[in-house]
Amino acid sequence: MLLPTSIHWHGLHQHRNADDDGPAFVTQCPIIPEASYTYTIPLGEQTGTYWYHGHLGTQYVDGLRGPIVIYLEDPHKGLYDIDNEETVLVVGDWYHTSSVAIEQSGNLTLQRPDSATINGKGRFDPDKTPANQDTLHTFKVKRGKRYRMRVINDSAIASFRFSVQNHKMKVIAADGVSTRPYEVDEFDILPAQRRDFVLEANQPPGTYWINAPMTNVANKTTQALLVYEDDAHSFKAPEGPHRTWAVSEGVIEYWRHGHHSHDSMHTSSEHKLRSERQNDPTQVVLDEAKLAPLNNKKPCNPNEAADMTLDLNFGLGQAAGTWAINNITYKSPATPTLLNIFQDDRTTDSDFSPSEHTVILPKHKCIEFNIRGVSNIPIIHPFHLHGHTFSVVQYGNSTPNYIDPPQGDVVGSRDAGVRLRFNTDNPGPWFLHCHIDWHLVEGLAMVFAEAPEEIKEGSQSVATDSEWKNLCKNYDAWAKTAGSNQRPKL
User: Fold this and answer.
1) pTM higher than 0.85, yes or no?
2) From 1.10.10.10, 2.60.40.420, 2.60.120.1140, 3.20.20.80, which CATH number describes the 308-486 domain?
3) What is the 3-state secondary structure of 147-168?
4) Alpha-carbon gap, residue 263 to 427, rounded angstroms
5) Which of 375, 337, 371 is nearest to 357 (CA)?
6) pLDDT in tens, 42-90
């Protein structure tokens, strides 16, 4: 590349390998232009659907992203016949302006995507562009076969409601975690989330819509085509509506007024839906709270209180155009957090500057944190925790679930909040951030420095090599030559 970069391997735990997790200035210095770096990743027992993306500034918005699938023994193997690269569907938003120009403009409305794609194809204006196999991704099936579909949302901001016309979907995994089969007609998928489902090709031969309207941006949608190879007729576009969406009044106000002023939002917490047509009450929409793990895994300390509890309140930052957690807008340090732990023996919160917002977590403890919004901005923020799969033990004010709660590495939160638990069994500095990429660079992030004394030495220490150690030396030399204005945010 002609720019500095770093790559994050989203959802992979990186045991004893935090140095290759990827977020710039948290676990590494960026790779300088025209240089190379080898990421070596121990997979352990992880299998399933993941993805990779740039983790320096807003690079992944411009296309530095792609799917990862780890194929090993699958407990759901008997539910499907076909699972290959053709069954991976990547849905994402698309911009006509570079992310750097959008970020530097300070104009919130430019963060609104121009369109979206499925596997790289889409239509800017569905009303003026024909639907065919040139303009839309086409997935071909044979009647009677069952397909394991893997859907990845690699968007910068867009959330989608995903469905396949006239076909049921049996959800069997979320964020790489196998779940009990759950049959639905539609499911919502937030940025960075993954959903695996079984699709049975059991309809009359023909062509059907794969629909993915945005749920947080009005009047934006993308589609693909499901085509039966058994159909003897020439191609014909599917019948019926090719798009529907349901966007709250609050979301419309968000895009209208922005978030650059504390007084700019005039929204109610009541979400009045606008849609092109009323949602069919017979349609089953996935309830994420019911996505129980297949192995019935309980959260840590299921019968007692967590060892450490954190309340994380997020909202608008003090400066215009920023976000904050507990009134702290995250700013990355000049030297990566991991390197600072190695060099300076940093073991307490006060060893880090306030703007780094780094919280020390003790080793082998059950951590519970409640993350909720406090700015009365009714959009869903997809929060991602690096280095772990967490249990979502409570959504809003619902009854807590300490028996078989959903698990994942991305969860949506707003003012009602969500309560999460995980065990500190993986020493490292792990990034917690909103996966709306614009909000990340605006400071909606913090770092959990997990067991820093174990990072340096012991059976779970992070083993770095000379290639990693040279990253900062090379980057500092490049930055001096390029000029300080070349240092990217985050």
Assistant:
1) yes
2) 2.60.40.420
3) EEEEEEECCCCCCEEEEECCEC
4) 41
5) 337
6) 999 999 999 999 999 999 999 999 999 999 889 999 999 999 999 999 9
